[in-house]
């Protein structure tokens, strides 16, 4: 096992799967962190387990009940929009935004990294073809890295942290192509916000639409299992 | 109830109690957030409940098992030092430091605040007479506020967050005096890192020493119940 470790946030979606594989390709051993935040799309956690089996040296699934706070279609009984990307509002940030989610998740990744002696965090956010969440933007990632180096013993003592967002400037098509290049079975990942009880993807939420568009534009077969109609 | 709400991190210690009372004094209704991180000093949670009954409009105790990561005397089986403040190492950051704890806690406070429509966070950190934790320093608080305004829908849409650290420049004696001025019963708060099973304070850990020094320097009776010797 490599002595260079990185904590990778692994949701179970295609983006975080590619992100974990890129961390491995860079020579890191992967400490995969999945947050069980009582998301509606629980099947995501099963996908995270499958991906971690292939790509991670350790995997922690940490329960953290964000439904205690409410405020998002992904953690409460607000309906997940199905009418097209950006169709649920004023062209701003969608109702599937979970308040401060990536801040919370990166903070937990930072906590594990410092405890484990790792100094690299990977997160699969991307700012192109994305859903408009503020905590996927480059300015957020930069601000978090700055914070990390003021917030921690290692940071203030000069053993700084780097936050890697290797998908930052990729389109969904680029990500689908990366998955193919890395030899990943994209079919074991899960992106849908509102899957059927058996895990099949709805095909209509933003996450499904963006994912399908990625495979299509990349000229690749979409391995996603959709709800039969 | 006031319409101005603030999320206050409430550990159950004297500092966070005074912090919550100061938020109320400023006219905020208090959303008190306590993180049950599987800390050794579980009696702290009982103290948080007592304080919230007096000072908070809502109280959430959120389970988050930071022992999954390890790395601190407060969450693992490393011994809590008892030989005097700063005596456990090289004069640097003590073993009771929990990796990235305040980053994680403030992130959760931010998540609740945004979900509740609040724009003010209160945290009882202080940088004088403190234990040397990096995430109690003013530079950390400023960096977190910057991050909060890039991380959230409200932040990027111009409804910014303010992180209040009203104890930042107070000594422990100042804090003991504030508790008296605010009419608080400091005896219901709990600071000790390594209490007896009945909740009595050990008297020797850093938290006990700093707290006792505060009451002594303020010329106030120390209401803490110590282990009988």
UniProtKB/TrEMBL annotation, chains A, B:
Q: Which GO terms describe its molecular function?
A: ATP binding; ligase activity, forming carbon-nitrogen bonds; zinc ion binding
In the record, the note on similarity to other proteins reads: Belongs to the QueC family.
Its taxonomic placement starts with: Bacteria, Pseudomonadati, Pseudomonadota, Alphaproteobacteria, Sphingomonadales
Taxonomy, superkingdom? Bacteria
By what name is this protein known?
7-cyano-7-deazaguanine synthase
Q: Which cofactor does it need?
A: Zn(2+)
This chain's source organism reads Sphingomonas edaphi
Pathway(s) the chain acts in: Purine metabolism; 7-cyano-7-deazaguanine biosynthesis
Q: Which UniProt keywords apply?
A: ATP-binding, Ligase, Metal-binding, Nucleotide-binding, Queuosine biosynthesis, Zinc
